[in-house]
Amino acid sequence: MQFPSRLIEHAVEEISKLPGIGKKTALRLVLHLLKNDVAVSESLANSISRLRQEIQYCEQCHNIADGPQCTICANPRRQHQLICVVEDLPDVLAIENTGQYYGGYHVLGGIISPIDGVGPDELQIESLVNRVAKPDSEIEEVILALSPTMEGDTTAFYLTKKLHPYNVKISAIARGVPIGGELEYADEITLGNSILRRRNYENEH
Predict the structure, then answer these.
(1) What domains are defined for the chain?
(2) Nearest-CA neighbor of 95 among 196, 170, 199, 168?
(3) Which residues contact 107 (CB under 8 A, 6 or more apart)?
(4) Is 0.85 surpassed by the pTM of this model?
(5) Terminus of the chain with fewer CB atoms < 10 Å: N or C?
(6) Are 147 and 104 a contacting pair, CB within 8 Å?
(7) pLDDT, tens only, 2-57
(8) Which stretches of the chain are DSSP H helices?
């Protein structure tokens, strides 16, 4: 692809590094920014800069937050006796978009994958156990909402063993999500029904 300017070429190269954006789409975005007032580009650059500098992660569930606690954990109307364990941040957004779940979350930051060098110590597993084990914990049920892959099942089995000593129900979302599929790409109706029809995990393993 030929570019009339090195500045445009550099901008296209950087934008095309984003997932799902090829160079043609990146070029259209660059040209769109050039056609608009300079304030539009400055506002975009400022928002990205602030995002990287100011974004925080919830001290309790590790969800994205503007402060020490995310809006979900801070919301007294949520059912905090329920904790939905997910692999990463996109899964929280996917479940929230179903409108079928009103409890809290715990973001692991990945799943156990020995082939990728990811073990339990690299994930937010110990903090989950600590949340459940606290004497004043109000958690009654932990819902394992992990992708139905080998790595997801391995992680779920490990979590079940870690949480077994505590007086908490452990369930898993129903297999409405295709085997081998990623949770964040499931449609909202399927994902919502999977949460509503969750099953007792311990009875099956």
Answers:
(1) 6-54 (1.10.8.420), 76-204 (3.40.1360.10)
(2) 196
(3) 61, 62, 63, 86, 87, 88, 89, 91, 92, 124
(4) no
(5) N
(6) no
(7) 778 899 999 999 999 999 999 999 999 999 999 999 999 999 999 999 999 999 99
(8) 6-15, 23-35, 38-54, 71-74, 89-96, 126-133, 150-163, 188-196
